[in-house]
Amino acid sequence: MDRATAYRRNNREAREVSFLQSEEDVNRRLAHGPVHEFRVGGAIAVDLSLLPAGMELFFEGQLSAPMVASCARCAEEFQRAQRASVSFRVGAARRGRRR
């Protein structure tokens, strides 16, 4: 069992965070990368649960956004909603230990 699951089982309360992130920065980075067949077509919805555990923070949630891509056959643009689950941990660096 990971620490986030154990933390929830101990009835600790998670803090819910939701916001919309502009797609402009992501599209600017995509424009300078090797792939140019798609872009983010609107604001990115960020929905996260924040679970503090001592000196660590656990984040779990989802990102969703409309994506605009070009058809490989006819080069016509189309839009499709995309969703991704995310989970990550942020913690203080420990002296003498490398990860």
Features:
single chain; 99 residues; five-stranded antiparallel beta sheet; 15% helix; 51% strand
Q: Please count the beta strands (DSSP E, at least 2 residues each).
A: 5
Helix content: 10-25%
Q: From the alpha carbons, calculate the radius of gyration and give it in angstroms.
A: 18 Å
User: Count of helices?
Assistant: 2
Binned strand content: over 45%
* Arithmetic mean pLDDT: 85
Q: SSE order in H/E notation?
A: HEHEEEE
Oligomer: single chain
Helix/strand-derived category reads alpha+beta
Bulk shape: elongated
Distance between the termini: 20 Å
| Uncertain parts | none
Main β sheet profile: 5 strands, antiparallel
Q: How many domains, in number, for the residues?
A: 1
Plain-language structure description:
With 99 residues, the chain is α+β, with helices and mostly antiparallel strands. The protein has one domain (3-89). It is 15% helix and 51% strand. The protein is built from two helices and five strands. Strands 1, 2, 3, 4 and 5 form a five-stranded antiparallel beta sheet that branches. Strand 4 (56-70) and strand 5 (77-91) form a beta hairpin. It is elongated and about 55 Å long. The two termini are 20 Å apart. 5% of the residues are buried.
